[in-house]
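Quick bug: acid phosphatase output formatted oddly.
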Amino acid sequence: MDRRDYLRSLSALFATTFLGGSAAVAANSRSERALERADRAATRYDSQPTDELTLPAIPEDNLNFFLANDLGRNGYYEQKTIAELMGRVAERIDIEFVVAPGDIHHFNGVASTQDPLWMTNYELIYSHPDLMIDWFATCGNHEYRGNTRAVLDYGRVSRRWMMRDRYYSRLFELDKETVEIFFIDTTPLIGRYREKEEKYPDAGTQSIDDQLRWLEGALSASKAKWKIVTGHHPLYADTDKSESERTDMRRHVEPLLDKYEVDMYLCGHIHNFQHIKPAGSRVDYVVNSAGSLSRRVKAIEGTRFCNDEAGFTLFSINDNAITFYMMNGKGKVLYQYTRTK
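Here's what came back:
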């Protein structure tokens, strides 16, 4: 085992066993983030060559995060290599946190907070020191096959697991403005999951009305310049999955996105990259690919971009713009988009 592999293993073990989570907490203010950047710039450690990795030029003061979902394959397929790539990117770009909208665990969720899948799907895979940051997650349909309470409670075990409820919001500071991300629990919003009590036992027990009341209240109260909503299931996407998933999501969620001028809706579930802007809509719908195993895709009405490679998306935000970069498992930027305001 070389020095770098040793440090990765030690970092994951130390984070999980001794700290109950991440070795570093994401900065809560601009001054704290600046101190963290200065410390990182002054720190030297051995690294794998990154000359072949060409990354976009991002202003130092931007707020940056990864969008990563549909991950849990026990490191198989492309999960481990993509996780390592995320760490390499985070070495060079100041990543504040990870947004993880569901399906961290294929196929049947987890049984408890001590389920070994937490190690083989998550802790030992995303073990790079620069990924020991806050992970803001939601449940996907695969989490609903298991113990969803354990997914919520895992924050008591891992300090970096920041999922405090089934749906919640977090406010982040920019320079003069703010961005608020609203995390929603989409599986209970879809009828086909609620109807399958044996397969998805918790889905039908969650109140649709309570969640939608919360979402409307949170959106209406938000003073953030940028509003982003994220959940596991798409409203618009090319997919062979049941059309009822999208129609249910559009019926419940789209009116609120439009009413409160949400800028972007981010999701996964489909295992490919898609950027869709429906005719007449001001919302950018972003489907992030799987971090492990991808599926074929084709353009539909409103498609701005689609690609069937596995990977993740890098977001970079400042007062005036949101830019995202869809990256494949080799570190190539497949698509770049900027929304200004």
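Actually, after a second look the formatting is fine. The first helix runs from residue 3 to 17. Closing.
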